[in-house]
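Subgroup meeting minutes
Present: P.N., E.W., G.H.
Scribe: E.W.

1. P.N. recapped why we're keeping a running log of single-chain structure predictions: easier to compare across weeks, and new members can see raw inputs and outputs side by side.
2. G.H. added today's entry (83 aa).
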Amino acid sequence: MDTDGYERLTARIEEAWKEFDDPATPHRDFRLDEISDLLEPALLTQEDTERVVGRMARIALSDDEDRDVVEAALHAICTAGTR
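Output recorded in log:
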């Protein structure tokens, strides 16, 4: 992937994280689904993927998240693990 394409990809992920972090965002789990979709083609570097998976793991283990959010985080971890 070219540098500009990689920057667009990581910018999309960062935007999804910002929306996820906003408690006013409806269906926060959809933001995690979006990140999961971006992980699927395995275009991120190993370091960036590990950073995303680490954050997803923290979300999945959180007692403060609802079931849909936890399930979306677990799905994203599985998606990243198939690379």
